[in-house]
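Quarterly update, task 2.4: adenosine monophosphate-bound model.
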Amino acid sequence: MRLVLLGPPGAGKGTQAERICASHELVHLSTGDLLRAAVAAGSELGLRAKAAMDAGDLVSDEIVLALVRERLEQPDAAKGFLLDGFPRNTAQAEALDADLGDRGVQRVISMRLDDEEIMRRLLARGRKDDQEIVIRNRLEVYREETAPLIAYYEGKDLLSSIDALGTMDEVFERIQSVLADESAGAGA
Ligand code: AMP
């Protein structure tokens, strides 16, 4: 399966992505994780990405696409992957479509969560980019840049929307039922 996990910061994408990948034997590609690793390693790319990440802005498409392409070219990704935190804007989604060609994204799972709950969760998480002012910016960036992807994938008939409120197990069950439908319908 070739999947995209979409949702606002704090929706629980990373946690659910790990469980989905373990259950369906997919490569987990998190651009946030790859970028944080690049920053920690002090690589040239990491240095270029750091300021945008600290501010809660998007890192340039050029940097992010280079990371994604490198990972998707590895042989294991041919069996299936889950993209977590990517694409984050329409330009990235279009570049992904062009790269994948006729082996394109098969299903997009959109995790829905209201702003109040997002704020509550992120403030509790306490990551470096989780200070209130940075969170507010990340939410704004999500609304302006990333949320339009919901309509983008809806237009391609690929979107399944789930409620991200509830326990980790409850949310995972909702995702599993979407994916069961996907597998059942994927006979062709
Ligand atoms: P995340 O772990 O997905 O919340 O990502 C953390 C930060 O990494 C974001 O706030 C962005 O600065 C950057 N980032 C992650 N994924 C992308 C992406 N697809 N495009 C641009 N920036 C990204």
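Highlight for this quarter: Strands lie at 2-6, 27-30, 81-84, 107-112, 159-163.
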